[in-house]
Design brief:
The chain folds into two domains: 176 residues, no CATH class; 212 residues, no CATH class. The chain is 51% helix and 17% strand. It has 13 helices and twelve strands. α1 packs antiparallel against α8, α9 packs antiparallel against α13 and α10 runs antiparallel to α12. It is elongated, with a radius of gyration of 31 Å.
């Protein structure tokens, strides 16, 4: 009965731990995505730029003013800034229509890709259509005469410059500029655009991406995300020392909520660690009782020639088997809990705009293996002290100890 209770305790502990990790991963990613969709905490733009304040700082408003790209290193050096995402807005002709191309760095970005609704597999390449742009994923579009495929589409955000623009990497923007300059003449509307009765436009006026005066190492804005412990006013004071910039602040409530998310997750991790310590103590107590009621058998084994390390190996092997099987059953229990969670609270979180997505398959596989290995290690550690005590006792003491 003690062995069964021990296995049940390990099953519950491992199952709840596995389910908590997977659900915590999914909710953390969902909450982080939701906060990232609220945009940047601060926006750094040229001083002469007119900025329309919205509740979400997702992208910069169209502007002719630019900042040098190397300013990103100075901004990143300001204490309290965790991420710096540069963006550049350049007017261009896409299928003969004037639209804004927003260049960004997919590695540093935290406000564009979080709104991705559908996309092709693989790394970011080609164009990404805004939520109100009519372009299908996989379609080939003419960008000032250069064909580019649509990599993905964004969801509708309600922020005009984000919904009505096309997005591409800085490298893709450089390719478009090089194509325009190599062609020698500005691009003309495509046959598809002419068939759609698009009014002719002056390329030199509307396609600034083809302008010979366009400098690539300039940006329209820097989107900033603060570290959890940063104070907005202190960061703004540090940024104010930089020349020729204007600082725009987002919603302070969203900023403080996003910063508090890290503290919440640390608290959950500490709570899980304490739960595992309690499980380890429980295993040690149960196995102490299991070993103590078998003192006579261990004493007889020793009297018949069994070595102390052999008896200790038997005890530890039994503990590993019991807790390992309990951990394996715990995976099944945890999976059932996760399915119930996804059907109930996961659905509710989706209604609130917090996506619930399972971790990648490699992460699930590694987590399952770690859970089984950890359950076996818990049994090993829990039985180590009782097994060591048996190892040190003489055979006659073990035989008579049960009677006492």
């Amino acid at each position: 009965m003690r062995a069964l209770f021990l296995g049940a305790a390990v099953m519950l502990g491992v199952g709840i731990g596995f389910a908590s990790f997977v659900a915590g991963w999914a909710l953390r990613e969902g909450i982080a995505t939701s906060f990232a969709r609220m945009g940047a905490d601060l926006l750094v733009v040229p001083r002469a730029t007119l900025v329309n304040i919205t509740s979400s700082l997702l992208t910069v408003q169209p502007t002719d003013q630019t900042l040098p790209l190397e300013l990103a290193q100075q901004i990143a050096g300001v204490p309290g800034i965790a991420r710096v995402a540069p963006q550049r807005i350049v007017p261009a002709l896409v299928e003969g229509r004037r639209v804004n191309l927003v260049a960004f760095d997919p590695v540093q970005d935290f406000s564009v890709l979080t709104w991705m609704q559908e996309h092709r597999p693989g790394p970011v390449e080609g164009l990404i259509a805004g939520g109100r742009v009519t372009a299908e994923v996989g379609a080939m579009l003419s960008v000032c005469g250069m064909p580019l495929s649509v990599y993905g589409r964004l969801a509708v955000t309600g922020v005009g410059p984000l919904d009505e623009s096309y997005f591409l990497s800085f490298g893709a923007l450089a390719d478009v500029v090089s194509f325009c300059r190599a062609s020698g003449t500005p691009a003309r509307p495509s046959a598809k655009a002419q068939n759609a009765q698009v009014l002719p436009v002056e390329d030199a006026e509307h396609a600034e991406v083809c302008s010979p005066d366009l400098v690539l190492d300039r940006v329209s804005a820097f989107l900033l995300q603060l570290s959890p412990e940063a104070k907005v006013e202190q960061v703004k004071f540090g940024l104010a020392q930089l020349p020729g910039i204007k600082i725009v602040q987002g919603n302070s409530v969203l900023t403080s909520s996003r910063q508090a998310l890290s503290t919440l997750l640390v608290g959950l991790a500490v709570f899980t660690a304490l739960q595992l310590i309690a499980l380890l103590i429980l295993i040690s107590l149960l196995f102490s009782a299991i070993v103590q009621e078998r003192y006579r058998e261990f004493g007889l084994l020793r009297a018949l020639g069994g070595k102390p390390h052999q008896v200790m190996t038997i005890i530890l092997a039994e503990a590993i088997i019991i807790t390992g099987v309990g951990g394996l059953c715990g995976l099944g229990f945890g999976t059932a809990v996760l399915l119930m969670f996804a059907r109930s609270l996961g659905f509710y979180f989706n209604l609130l705009g917090v996506p619930f997505s399972w971790p990648p398959l490699p992460v699930l596989q590694v987590t399952a293996l770690v859970a089984i290995a950890f359950s076996a290690i818990l049994g090993l550690l829990g039985a180590l002290l009782p097994a060591w005590r048996v190892r040190r006792m003489a055979p006659h003491a073990l035989i008579h100890a049960e009677g006492r």
